Amino acid sequence: MEKKVFLITGGSRGLGKKVVERLALNKEHMICFTYLNSQDAALQLARETGAFSLQCNQQNGDEVQDTVRKISSTFGKIDVLINNACPAFTPTDFLNSDSDHFKSLLDIHVMGAYFFSRETSPLMRDRHSGKIINILSSYVFNLPPKKIAHYITAKYALMGLSKALAVELIPYGITVNMISPGLMATDLSKYLPRKYLEVYSANHPMGRMASTDDAADILEFLISDQADFLNGINIPVNGGETF
């Protein structure tokens, strides 16, 4: 089996951490992940898994370029990019929203994915092989909750970018797909009211929130050779919330 190089953005916690841990079980592959502020958690994860951690502010195109260059100069390629980075945020009434905070979420989700996709795509194009997977949210399929207009807008914008790249990059052997997990027990959900989480789980078809393992299972499939003929799809990982 050819040794592959994976890059996961926002890999120090939540779903990103779970994916790093899963992929690191295969010692044939090299796992790289980025983080912004969680240095202690990132270094611990790197020690435990043997993964390569890099601090990067993905709102800054120059930092992203430098990060990708470090990986490519060390390992010679990047086979799979998983755009996962998602900062914790506070639910806010739209009428009381702050434009800087709103723009920051857009920059991290959309511009961050744009920068990383732009820098890794030429490496994939040169080998006529590569996969980009973007993490969305099941809210793009159904009615979103109130007070997270910034988050919803960012995820819809990322979905648009994903579909555009799926069309534009496939001639170079690069597929672009998405997964949309349901609400997961991560740092993000801690900012939601407990009552909302209780009602959500009680009304869910499976009676629970999604887990990071649920999402990681689908990601492992999408990065496998069995998913080579999939392109431009968005897989809901939400236990039947939407059909």
Automatic annotation (TrEMBL):
Keyword terms: Oxidoreductase
The UniProt record lists the keyword Oxidoreductase: yes
EC number annotated for this UniProt entry: 1.1.1.100
GO biological process: bile acid metabolic process
Any Pfam family: adh_short_C2
GO function terms (MF aspect): 3-oxoacyl-[acyl-carrier-protein] reductase (NADPH) activity
Statement: the UniProt record of this protein carries the keyword NAD: no
InterPro entries reported in the protein's UniProt record: NAD(P)-bd_dom_sf, SDR_fam
Source species, domain of life: Bacteria
Matching SUPFAM superfamilies: NAD(P)-binding Rossmann-fold domains (SSF51735)
Family named by the database record: Belongs to the short-chain dehydrogenases/reductases (SDR) family.
Record's protein name: 3-oxoacyl-(Acyl-carrier-protein) reductase
